[in-house]
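Side project, low priority. Logging it here so it doesn't get lost.
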Amino acid sequence: MNRDAIEQEIVDLIKEMLNLPFVDADTVLVGNTGVLDSMTIVRLLAEIEHRFEFTLDEDDLTLDSISNVKRLTEWVIKSRQASH
């Protein structure tokens, strides 16, 4: 699965989970203007872990790595490579 496909899967997942009409690579996920609350972050990360078949490395997870869709995509790619 290439980077664009992973990003699109994450976009679709967030849109589905939050019933949002528009999400793109620059959508802010966490912080004051973020679309995710703490419970949704946990649900999203669990679903990403399941869909992309890797185990989260909590030491590698930072708020910066999940701050927007683009950074989350990069983190997923890096995490998948590290687990395989």
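Brief comment: The chain has one domain: 3-83.
Revisit when time allows.
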